[in-house]
Amino acid sequence: MENNDFIITVANSTHLDFATIICEEYESSAKARGTGIAKRTPEYVKQKMLEGKSIIAFSKDGVWAGFCYIETWSHGDYVANSGLIVSPHFRKAGLAKSIKKHIFKLSRTLYPNAKIFGLTTGLAVMKINSELGYEPVTYSELTQDDAFWAGCKSCVNYSILMSKDRKNCMCTAMLYDPKDHYEPEETKEHFEKHSKVYERLLRFKQRIFGKKADEKKTTFLQLLFH
After folding, report:
1. Does residue 20 contact residue 27 with C-beta atoms inside 8 Å?
2. Can you state the angle between helices 184-208 and 123-132, rounded to 10 degrees?
3. pLDDT tens digits for range 26-45
């Protein structure tokens, strides 16, 4: 789990000054990708730091490099590792993978019985998740807490989500269930074997979502997720 090129640690009160920089990078990244991202405020990021529910990364010389935090839903039954962001200066250095592993370990420590889930539009994040034991699932297997879905309102794809009755969107849903899961070696192998299928699925969703999809296409997507 170690990445010796960076200092990766649980964020705390000494890191509050980085909250604005992190939020600016969230907004910049969302615009660059054009896929939408839920909006975060510096106050919210600071709260996560003070609660000990976030991971922050720095270069060896102290330059901010990355961040991720934990959210809980349905009275702690579900946990999301959200807001993974890496500074453009430090991308393609394996940092995102290292942060994901640290936040996953922190989540398992703080909430050992919770189901850990995530939504992503990126194949790279799907790959990292699969190496931790996550499996692709339908949206129905995620928390149904209205507060969670309300967090998607600032995403540019929110209208798509609601038009699908919160059953699908541009993001792919992935879940780790501590009580019922495959071993990471198995989920990693499965992802590598079917990565081309997932890649085609992501492109397919990008083409059809936002348009009026017929019932056959919706059923097709649901079958692929199982």
Report:
1. no
2. 160
3. 888 877 765 555 678 999 99
